[in-house]
Amino acid sequence: xxxxxxxWEEIGLNLDAHTGLLGVLTDAYKSIYLSQKDRPNxxxxxxxxISEVHGLRIEEVYEAKKERRKIVGTFxxxxxxxxxxxxxxxxxxxCAGAEVGSSEAERFIPRNTCALIKAFMGFKLAGLCPYxxxxxxxxxxxxxxxxxxxYEIFNEITKKVYVMELPDMKSEGDRRLWLSEVRRFRxxxxxxxxxxxxxxxxxxxxxxxxxxxxxxxxxSRLRSADPSPISGLDALLVNQIVFxxxxxxxxxxxxxxxxxxxxxxKRGVGAAERGLPRILIxxxxxxxxxWKLHSIIEGSGAVVVGEESxxxxxxxRNLLDENFSSVDEALEKIASRYMGINCACFTPNxxxxxxxKSLVDSLHADGVIHYSLQFCTPYMMEAYKAERAIxxxxxxxxxxxxxxxxxxxxxxxxxxxxxxxKGRA
Amino acid sequence: xxxxxxxIGSRFIKLALVEEGRLVFSRKSETSFxxxxxxxxxxxxxxxxxxxxxxxxxxxxxVHIGSRTITExxxxxxxxxxxxxxxxxxxxxxxxxTKVISLDEKGTVRKxxxxxxxxxxxxxxxxxxxxxLDYPIKDFGSITxxxxxxxxxxxxxxxxxxxxxxxxxAKGEDRADIGVALQRLVANRVLSMLKRIPVExxxxxxxxxxxxxxxxxxxxxxxxxxxxxADTPEITGALGAALYATEN
Lengths: 425, 248
Prior knowledge:
The structure holds 2 protein chains of 2 kinds. By secondary structure, chain A is an alpha/beta fold. Chain A has 19 helices and 8 strands. Helix content of chain A is 55%, strand content 10%. In chain A, strands 2-1-3-4 form a 4-stranded parallel sheet, with helices on both faces. Chain A has a 4-stranded parallel sheet with strand order 6-5-7-8, sandwiched between helices. The N and C termini of chain A lie far apart (47 Å). In chain A, 53% of the residues are buried. The model of chain B has no long low-confidence stretch (mean pLDDT 90). Chain B is of the alpha/beta class. Chain B has a 5-stranded mixed sheet with strand order 3-2-1-4-5. A 5-stranded mixed sheet of chain B has the order 8-7-6-9-10, with helices on both faces. In chain B, a hairpin with a 2-residue loop joins strand 2 (12-19) and strand 3. Chains A and B meet through helix 19 of A and helix 3 and strand 8 of B.
């Protein structure tokens, strides 16, 4: 890898700690990813992207910034990427998938906060995330109480936070509120970028973002084959990388990967043996580099075939209707597309239960593992309803965070669950 | 056919030998800081290569000895079914985890619940609390409340419960009453886990903590049902593993 020290220094990272982080990340990647057997060749690109996670991609974003394009950080799939792109911005999903800077974060937020919130505070406070440092605007959203209040504090620290109000329910009034929030965000992006968001720019943005979604949908469908042509770990990685890679290149490379997977499916070649128990994950997001549960499951003789998660289906399953002929109409379609994401922050949220059921069927899952980040109340609570909704395959709840201290217990539970799934076959 | 099952738990390693599907021999040893050595000692004059490992340390054993492994859930299900053929529900309080398992008529695992990372309410919790009250662990289960006063301890967290115990002692409460309150805490934890699985008769209490009479009675009283305990309940997992070993 090229020496990026100078760039990291300019951006303002904590160099020593950052070197340490990259070392840990590289080791984890080697042991979790590169040790897998029968990986598709198309994963080489994604391996490369990971190896350059704070290198080449940062260089690109840094270049874009120098060209006066605005860098916008987001934490949630409800933030409309089309509007960011239509203002010629660069959209980056900020990393929050590792236990980093917890003690710094705990100066500001309670210890009993979900790992994701702690991590986005921690990454910033420890000076470890070059993306955060490059952002001109950080867009938060009112999806949960923890995030909502953390953004207030995060704004004190960064002075760049803008929050979109996401309603709690799905009524007409809520939809109107959300549409007005989408319009307000359009105004904000125009103000930040100094550029008018035109119909043409929105059309282009819509096609770019839909392109990514279509590629990911293709990947998702291919995982319904037995044997699965790709490991759950690799598919998860692709679903994580979409949040920060260049969108056009990402789409191209994901489609290329899917071409190869299609060929594998035709030939009956898999990343795992045929007939292995097939597990669907459902629940809280797994931000990069959170590979904990997938690696436990796939290390226990099963294959993960899907993620009903923000890092997964919820991010790509709905396309934006590109058939609009004015900016206003585009904003309406955008608002309605994003309201169709079924996050546990809504009440009631029965549509999510239908989503899980339909994924169990379409992916031929043999079991569902419901994954909640500890202290992620919406998902922890909704697990009850999900469990009752899934009646045809075994269901297990897991509650964990990013630390490694419960690996032993988790392995025990996951292995026993897989034994149980096999016992039914 | 002769086969061995070894259950490497966080506190004890248990060995069971079966012949023609019947338990012929068992023994245990503290896990200590070198569990592998203890395994070798336990297996010293055991005359079979047909070994199945289970328990928290099963993978360590798998790597070094090349035996096959199954999880405690599967092993306990099999072991309990062998000891009590009508078993449909299993309670196991181990050294660092607590689990409840529901079986179908054939003995296949239908559903199970297990504690998360925290060791609250496990055997280790009882061990620490017994020490705080200066009871040998083997006697802790046979204490009887002295004054009949029902003391409430609220926290299942080992650290918080310890400080509650300290203040109860300071208030001059009787140690037997405190001891019973602590066991009630552990029993309640198991009882709330049981609410998440179908509970049907027979109910079997397995694992080392099943020797604790007080705990057994508290659970029985709440469920209003008989809870069965084997003579050596701690051997259940090793027995189940040994029985699986005979099959393959």
